Amino acid sequence: MQSPYSSVYKKRSAAVQPPAAPNAFDFFLPCPRGVEAALADEVKALAEHSPTLRAGMPTPGGLPVQGSLTDAMRLNLHCRLPSRVLLLGGSCSYADAEDIYHLARDLAWEKWFDVTQALRVDVTAEHSPLASIKFAALRVKDGICDRFRALTGERPDVDTAHPDVRIHLHLREADALLYLDTSGEPLFKRGWRSEHGAAPLKEHLAAGLLKLSGWTPDDVLFDPLCGSGTLVIEAAQMAANRAAGLDRSFGFEALQGFDMDAWNALREQARQAVRPLTPGQFFAADIDPANVRMTLDNARRAGVDGAIAAQAGDVIAAVPPVDAAALPAGQAAWLISNPPYNERIAPEGEAADDFAPQLARTLKQRFAGWHVALLAADLHWDKALRLKPRRRIVLFNGTIECRLMLIDMVAGSARG
Asked: Which Gene3D superfamilies does the UniProt record give (predicted)?
């Protein structure tokens, strides 16, 4: 599997210092594999409001971006699809961990944070020849600490649980890249979730399903297997033009060099851009009443509770919450869901042979005129569902290979 960090930046033989030009920073935005093109579209839409923001060519698992530090704040605030906004600090070729130590020691970290701030170093690797990538991460920490000790006589603390600053090391076969994490907590942690059910769908992947399916913020959405409500909440926030990061803080707020007046202005603009929603567009259901309560509670914290109707019910007995044929011209009805699998209720193999045809029968008999998008992690589902998708999109939910199956429902009954 190719890493999201592959072939993104030209190899450099020496560390790169933070540039003076405001539009000369390189960033990398990791995202779930399969949504890279949608992420590029998301960044390009933001670039319409910034002359300095430019999206690069998508690479498996992410997107390289160039822009200013204000653009980094804009990306953190508005983007729904990436997991982080990483600022490239420098890179080097390496033969052993000592080369990586020297890279870390030579970078001007004091331009970004001071010795009183605790740090954490994370590491990923693809085809690295090093015997221990954890030791490489330790040498990054040593290099940073030794630089501060040489400058100030003190070393910053390390705090893996609640760091002020996060550093990310990525090791390729011949070169190492060091990033400063401007996001802090992963961006899929929007700030509204207090509870989640078993195997929850992460927010950035939910946003990816919505983008890839063809659903638009004007369309009706029904998730009959809503769990903690991630899909309908993401959709409602998109329809309300509510920025993904409006209710949380970010790592760059603890860093030097970021214009906090500009940040406050960006956040206020985002607040002013929120649109009110009316009931009748977003619907959710789940067989577990506790999940319904969780969905409504999460929706309240997300600022979209009044727009979402949720009730307890078995998906096999589900009926359309609206008549698709009666919708105004240009508005479509979508059923988008992440059917339970693996640790949730495990409809794999023989179990899928039972559950999937029942779901297909419900869709065929009651949801004529609806568009359907189902995320299937058990690849046996494609056969067991016995419906013909117009398109299958390969996605990864973490390390789990999935298929997003897009199906246009017509009148009739399931085969079999």
From this structure: 3.30.2130.30, Vaccinia Virus protein VP39
Look at residues 98, 103, 86 and name the one whose alpha carbon lies nearest to residue 15: 103
How far is Cα 372 from Cα 152, in angstroms, rounded to an integer? 60
Q: How wide is the angle at C-alpha 331 spanned by C-alphas 329 and 335, nearest 5°?
A: 140
Spatial separation of the C-alpha atoms in residues 416 and 314, rounded to whole Å: 22
- pLDDT of res. 411: 55
Which sign, positive or negative, has the C-alpha torsion 321, 324, 330, 334? positive
CB of 69 closer than 8 Å to CB of 26: no
- Neighbour-count burial of 83, counting CB atoms closer than 10 A to its CB (0-12 exposed, 13-18 middle, 19+ buried): buried
The pLDDT tens digits of the residues spanning 343-355 come to 344 444 445 567 8
Q: What is the pLDDT of residues 208-259, one digit of tens each?
A: 999 999 999 999 999 999 999 999 999 999 999 999 999 999 999 999 999 9
Query: Diameter of the chain by CA atoms?
Result: 76
* 325: number of Cβ within 10 Å: 8
Task: Read off the pLDDT of residues 373-383 as tens digits, 9 standing for 90 and up.
Answer: 999 987 778 78
- Architecture per CATH, domain 25-181, reads as 2-Layer Sandwich (3.30)
Q: How many helices (H) and strands (E) does the chain have?
A: 10, 14
- What CATH architecture applies to the domain 203-244+275-408? 3-Layer(aba) Sandwich (3.40)
pLDDT, tens only, 278-313: 999 999 999 999 999 999 999 999 999 999 999 999
What is the per-residue DSSP string for 225-272? Answer: T-TTTHHHHHHHHHHTT--TTTTS--GGGGSSS--HHHHHHHHHHHHH
Burial 25-52 (b: 16+ CB within 10 A, else e): bbbbbbbbbbbbebbbebbeebbeebeb
Q: Which residues contact 380 (CB under 8 A, 6 or more apart)?
A: 348, 349, 352, 353
Positions of CATH 3.30.2130.30 in the chain: 25-181
